[in-house]
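Students often ask why we bother encoding 3D structure as a string. The short answer is that it lets us treat folding as translation between two languages. Here is a chain of 187 residues written in the first language.
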Amino acid sequence: MQNIDNPTLIIAVVVAIIVAVGVVWLVSQRRRRTHLREKFGPEYDRTVAAVGTTGKAAAVLEQREKRVSAYHIRPLAEDERRRFSEAWQRTQAKFVDDPAAAVTEADALVTEVMTARGYPMTEFDRRAEDLTVEHASVVQHYRAARDIVARHVSREASTEDLRQALVHYRALFSDLLSDRPEARRSA
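And here it is in the second language, the structure alphabet:
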């Protein structure tokens, strides 16, 4: 066996250990980013753009996951799902005669479903963030609908814009009514 007092050998071993640790760290960071990108979809890129780096975005999204995991999000019972579906049909039918009222009801109905599922009803931005954890693929619809509603309040939205808002709300509403997020969580 070689002499372990050989400084060159010691330096080589230390360098090899540092390189190995670096490789492991890089691989774990790549996996972390891949997981977050797959889970959050467009929200991942949106968060990176908002905070500036992938590392900061990962921390923000992981904190969001942790916060939402503490909530008691539950699937809807079949009678709740049926009741909400019927309410949605009435809301959609109202659009023909009163588009603004239908969109207002759609927003209220989405909020009611979120409450029934167990999401806390804080300010809009926090609700949208919370939704990204289990409904990342449709949360952009929620934001788009709310933007249209804000334009409507300023009298800058057309009836076609209101129709688009209703379509956006419907996408989120349908996802909230489904059990897919719970299936993903237990997988």
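Translate back mentally: Residues 138 and 171 are 7 Å apart (CA to CA). Keep this in mind for the problem set.
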